[in-house]
Amino acid sequence: MMVGATRHLLIGILAVASQLGTTTSATVRSRDDSSSERSRCRYLPGDNEWPSLNEWASLNASISGRLIQVVPLGHVCHDPTYDAAACAALSSWTLPQTQWSDASGFTAAYQQNASCNPFTPQSTPCLQGNYVSYAINVSSAADVSAGIKFAQKKNIRLVIKNTGHDYLGKSTGTGALSIWTHHLKDIKILDYASPAYTGRALKLGAGVQGFEANNAAASAGLRIVGGECLTVGVVGGFTQGGGQSLLSTKYGMGADQTLEWEVVTADGTLVKASPTKNSDLYWGLSGGGPGTYGVVVSLTVKAFPDGVVGGANLFFTAAGISQDIYWGAVELWHTLIPSVVDAGAHTTWIVQPTFFTLYEITITDGTEALLRGLLKPFTDYLDANGVQYQMGVSSLPNYHSHVDRYLGPPPYGYDAASSLLEGGVMFNRSTFVSQNKKIVAHMRDMATTRDFFFPAYAFNVSRTPSSPNAVLPGWRNMLVYMESQKFWDFTVPFEEMAAQEAIMTNVVMPPLQDLAIGAYMNEADFNNPRWKQEFYGKNYNKLRAIKKKWDPKDLFYATTAVGSDVWKVAGDGRLCRA
Ligand SMILES: Cc1cc2nc3c(=O)[nH]c(=O)nc-3n(C[C@H](O)[C@H](O)[C@H](O)COP(=O)(O)OP(=O)(O)OC[C@H]3O[C@@H](n4cnc5c(N)ncnc54)[C@H](O)[C@@H]3O)c2cc1C
Ligand SMILES: *[C@@H]1O[C@H](CO)[C@@H](O)[C@H](O)[C@H]1NC(C)=O
Ligand SMILES: *[C@@H]1O[C@H](CO)[C@@H](O)[C@H](O)[C@H]1NC(C)=O
Ligand SMILES: *[C@@H]1O[C@H](CO)[C@@H](O)[C@H](O)[C@H]1NC(C)=O
Ligand SMILES: *[C@@H]1O[C@H](CO)[C@@H](O)[C@H](O)[C@H]1NC(C)=O
Ligand SMILES: *[C@@H]1O[C@H](CO)[C@@H](O)[C@H](O)[C@H]1NC(C)=O
Cα–Cα distance between 415 and 96 in angstroms, integer? Predict the structure, then answer.
């Protein structure tokens, strides 16, 4: 059985190898059956084939000592490396800043697998688990290239990590060598001219985070399209996955802002990708999924003259009012979304079982009177039903001050706890309007009986971008993106939270998915069985072909990335060809 399966796969590999004219067939033939079976998998520490210390040392020497042997951040909470003070400092475990500053860190709790966190007993050993084995703290394209070549040659898993924010756990992997881009912080402000765009631009190193790009833009009287979470990386997952922003109704998706990418590809060479140069790679990187086509070292994006921004927020709790009035308010708010977005807005709100937060309405050039007018039917309902609320309205001179007010405090913004269960769907306008009662009834049921909550945002990016890109076509018809979340509870056994993940996939999401036109790959369920269709839609096959061309051996793997189904992750985390 095993041997038969091996032969079958070998034939496949040989056929592909001969088509590509590579030397894979020679390598495969020279091994006996069991080691060729293993060479279909990435090697792990402990395997005979795992690089020797000398080999790691020579990689390290070739990159000026920038190689890190990764020890999971939580090791200070476990014997024999327990350190009471250092462990206490990890009480901020779920905040992204705790994770991004360390080579090992990432926030996706399911993928952390409770193998080395501050919440398990001190006597429990710290296991490497899903944490990478080595990381290169890259400072240049040459460092990236050395890492890629080493991983290819030694048949070990490669991971790209920027901030580690990814909800699906894409920025980690068992036994991997990680390309850690966090310290690529260069920012240049440019006057840019190309057939597609003439104007100001920012050239951003791969490690630049939203708040850093915002600050640089503001200092030149400009603004750029970055995420709501100010610490998300602009160049990594955000823009490559699509990128939604407070400024999206005005300017489009993050991926609609791209002018040119600098990328180290799977063969270790540095290339440029723009609408006119390597345009297929440009198309795929701009919305076709992060961690899939190459390692980006920089991205140049459009920047716009700054100016007045109107805003509003509103908050109330369910205390002292009936559940029908509370959920009636949610339903009423939903009916106002089309008129709010048509006024040029982007808006974000969160429906919790016991409180409602309208985080922001953002309208460029909006006046306070406009915002009050848009909210009037909502405040009328709240007043009529005796709901006490807090509301704020503003019209500030620039985007920077608007961001500080609605997403602050600077620099990182509100405490964006991001160890959560995550799912999401996008609704088009007609469905969101006609199915409002049904959607809210399901939210109410899931909030009340399952304790899930629902962040959502609405905006309009229907406008065709200046250069074609791989953004999921559904975004162009989307009115509302709705997430389903639940905070990860680290104090209960891991299995209980894993069971909650299954409830999300099988109970919370399907009724919403049945009404949806897709999902945002960055804010979605990693277990979504419909991921190919929902995350990529009709772009999938074209993206797969682009990946085949630029990454013929499928070096770049991330869960639910294009082409990821050629690999399978085994129970011990080993990546093997499916
Ligand atoms: C609190 C919070 C709020 C968020 N708010 C928003 C929002 O407002 N709008 C929005 O659109 N999204 C938002 N997101 C989602 C966010 O866009 C994704 O989590 C995104 O993947 C983060 O990208 P990163 O590069 O910072 O993180 P990472 O986890 O480091 O990387 C994410 C993915 O990008 C890949 N990658 C990173 N750098 C590179 C590179 N240089 N080259 C190639 N691949 C790379 C990684 O391999 C991984 O697959 C939010 C997430 C969180 C946790
Ligand atoms: C790489 O070299 C630097 C500088 O010599 C050293 O500090 C570091 O520990 C080395 N990394 C590994 C993994 O050995
Ligand atoms: C996750 O934890 C389980 C239970 O401890 C273990 O069996 C499994 O191997 C772990 N996965 C990884 C990738 O380490
Ligand atoms: C990574 O490199 C940067 C400089 O590029 C340095 O400031 C930082 O301390 C390094 N981090 C680690 C963990 O080696
Ligand atoms: C977005 O705006 C365009 C132009 O005003 C409009 O035709 C379209 O219906 C809007 N889309 C949504 C989802 O509201
Ligand atoms: C809106 O989405 C629904 C799926 O919920 C689909 O059946 C319908 O055709 C879409 N309508 C428009 C106008 O795109």
Answer: 9
